[in-house]
């Protein structure tokens, strides 16, 4: 299937720091989704992006749909302990495909150091 | 908030046993999915369904089978469990006209 390159693979930060992660691909996407997964739980949708250039916020989270349609980023401001978890990006290919063509990144592990 | 349920949440079972992982959603979603995920790793799509009596294999080959007799129910069955099946299994659903997938809490399967 199509590859989504999600980076960084892991982040070790101090509480209160801002966080930035992104997903890139050589393919064009027409939807980007960001999920967070807590240990032992299923992923929970954080933000959905549907238009190139779209910038959407959800509390301390901000995500953008890249102008080229090939990338997206997620920022978390003033991190707190409950932000710990794995963040996944997911993209819907413009060309479609099986199972709605939703492709997932490999995840960014966010770890907050005391 | 999504209403999608999975049971059991945890299962430890011996090799060779037949198991069924249950997934139900109360949102009336047409599309349902099963993913396999090793701890802390990426999601792999193993089965999906576009509606009743529709089932398709996903990107990752799996020895499991699924059925979709009712819209709200999408069970996954392993006829003979093996240690290599040890993993977390996540169920998801999405509306017919949408692409956002809503996930259940997962079933953590351990085969001894």
Detailed description of the structure:
The complex is a heterodimer of chains A (114) and B (112). Chain A is an all-beta fold. Helix content of chain A is 0%, strand content 54%. In chain A, the strands form 2 sheets. In chain A, strands 2, 4, 5, 9, 10 and 11 form a 6-stranded mixed β-sheet that branches. A 5-stranded antiparallel β-sheet of chain A has the order 1-3-8-7-6, with no helix packed on it. The model of chain A has no long low-confidence stretch (mean pLDDT 90). Chain B is mainly beta. Helix content of chain B is 0%, strand content 45%. Chain B contains no helices and 11 strands. Chain B has strands spanning 4-7, 10-13, 19-25, 31-37, 44-49, 56-57, 65-66, 76-78, 87-94, 102-103, 107-111. In chain B, strands 2, 4, 5, 6, 9, 10 and 11 form a 7-stranded mixed β-sheet that branches. A 4-stranded antiparallel β-sheet of chain B has the order 1-3-8-7, with no helix packed on it. Chain B is globular. The interface between A and B is medium-sized, with 24 and 25 residues.
Give descriptors for this structure:
heterodimer; A: 114 residues; mainly beta; 6-stranded mixed β-sheet; 54% strand; globular; B: 112 residues; 7-stranded mixed β-sheet; 4-stranded antiparallel β-sheet
Radius of gyration of chain B: 13 Å
Let me know the average pLDDT of chain A: 90
Q: Tell me the major beta sheet of chain B.
A: 7 strands, mixed
Please state the structural category of chain B: mainly beta
Listing every helix as H and every strand as E from the N terminus to the C terminus, the arrangement of chain B reads EEEEEEEEEEE
Fraction in helix of chain B: under 10%
Distance between the ends of chain A:
39 Å
- The end-to-end span of chain B amounts to 35 Å
Total helical segments of chain A: 0
